[in-house]
Amino acid sequence: MNLAEVLQGHRVVVCVGSGGVGKTTTAAALALRAAVDGRRVLCLTIDPARRLATSLGLDEMTTEERVVPMALFEAQGLKPKGELSAMMLDTKRTFDELVERYASSPEARDRILNNEIYRYVSSSLAGTQEYMAMEKLHAVRQNDRWDLIVLDTPPTTNALDFLDAPERLVAMIDSPAMRWFVQAFQGAGKMSFNLLGKGAAFLLKGISQFTGGEFLANIAEFVTGLNELFGGFRERAATISESLRKPDVAFVVVTSPAPMAVREAIFFARRLESAGLADSGFVVNGMRPLLHEPSVPRSELLAELSELLPPGADVEAALTRLENALDDERLLAVGDRIESDRLRSQVGEDRLVVEVPAFDQDVHDLRALTEVADYLVGKRQMEAIS
Ligand SMILES: Nc1ncnc2c1ncn2[C@@H]1O[C@H](COP(=O)(O)OP(=O)(O)OP(=O)(O)O)[C@@H](O)[C@H]1O
Ligand SMILES: [Mg+2]
Predict the structure, then answer these.
(1) pLDDT-based confidence at residue 277 (cuts at 50, 70, 90)
(2) Residue predicted with more confidence, 30 or 197
(3) Residues 98, 182: one domain?
């Protein structure tokens, strides 16, 4: 299977990988390709670089989905047979929308939205962004306006965070400690230390001395509110995890050729497998291409260089420096090749691994994305190093 078939044969394609390896670029390039080939695609991006967002017709202020205007395609000589929409994922907004949709009354809604702990959790708690990406995916999947959704995922220092996020968030919100807080709070109408065991009461008093009783009350209110809201976060997270296991969901593991990123990609693929999620392929993005040795005699190079350099310059020394720099570049290219081959041999020769070269410039416009997509779907391939 190649990535063109993956795009053709799935409803959802999730790009995962560690920070900065090219997930957003890959997601946008895949979405663009699928739209050009005739599918109605939604690309759900997270923190795209500003210039990329502009290229996709997203201005900074909006988190609504936007159809990429035909004029933007035409300007690049592209004629999509399908349609591309793009959306920026806004974690807090997604969370707020959930609260608005499920709150039992306007009062309950406001109580949660105005709760300080909620404000913190919904915007800055580790794992919330990952969880909300899943929530958003779940929501847009119900909409048959799109026949393909390409999901970008947030930068995490450890790619595993992404898969664990729903569980971790749930564990935090729905933990015995939290439930105990809630019970203590609700049992007495307010936090009653007398009802608790001695040790716990001592601990709580200690906490409230530092943080004020209000903090505890806020937590209790927040947890009670959320549980009421979602009928148990746990069930909700289970439903969402479940929906990721459907056969119409593909995972693409993106990595750079850096040894650490490759190690993490291998680890992540195993983690996906053990979680019952199948990855459909790997992308090694940013491979440095092999620069060829010049085929002209050295004497000619010296002559050419002396014309470029100011009079009196040490042309011989300059050429030697250039040759050394070229050697270094070639070594780096060979290093990238070794890493890519290592990935291939570790995940199994039968698995799909595609390589995308490092371009001279950042990938920010539709033309550059098209070029990336050509490599992703195998229309172009990097030169092998013999
Ligand atoms: N093959 C490439 N050649 C040149 N530049 C690239 C290439 N791939 C990505 N870039 C650039 O590298 C930067 C990081 O890429 P991108 O945003 O896709 O990574 P990411 O994995 O989404 O990062 P984060 O984890 O921070 O979200 C961007 O500026 C992008 O334009
Ligand atoms: Mg990104």
Answers:
(1) confident
(2) 30
(3) no
Q: Measuring CA to CA, how many Å separate 355 from each of 158, 261, 382, 384?
A: 22, 14, 7, 11
Looking at the fold, whether 185 and 275 belong to one and the same domain comes out as no
How many folded domains does the chain comprise?
A: 2
Mean pLDDT to the nearest integer, 2-16: 94
Give the nearest ligand 1 atom to 356 CA: 1
Residues with CB in 5 Å of ion ligand 2: 23-24
Q: Is 384 a domain residue?
A: no
Ligand 2 centroid to 97 CA: how many Å?
Answer: 23
Q: Which domain holds residue 83?
A: 3-170+234-290+352-376
Could you tell me if residue 273 is inside a domain?
Answer: yes
Q: Are residues 218 and 356 in the same domain?
A: no
Residue nearest to atom 11 of ligand 1 (CA): 362
Strands 40-45 and 279-287: unpaired
Which range of 79-93, 150-164, 326-340 scores highest in mean pLDDT? It is 326-340
Pocket-forming residues, ligand 1, beta carbon under 6 Å: 19-25, 47, 49, 155, 285-286, 356, 358-359, 362-364
Look at residues 196, 231, 266 and tell me which one is the last residue of a structural domain: 231
Both 218 and 96 in a single domain? Answer: no
* Nearest ligand by distance to the CA of 17: 1
Tell me, yes or no, whether 76 and 133 share the same domain. Answer: yes
Is pLDDT at 200 greater than 60 in this prediction?
Answer: no
Q: Which atom of ligand 1 is nearest to the CA of 357?
A: 1
Tell me how far apart the alpha carbons of residues 73 and 60 are, in angstroms, rounded to a whole number: 20
Closest Cα to atom 16, ligand 1: which residue? 22
158 with 26, same domain: the answer is yes
Q: Starting at the edge strand that comes first in sequence, how are the strands of the sheet with 353-357 ordered?
A: 66-67, 83-88, 40-45, 148-151, 12-16, 249-255, 279-287, 353-357
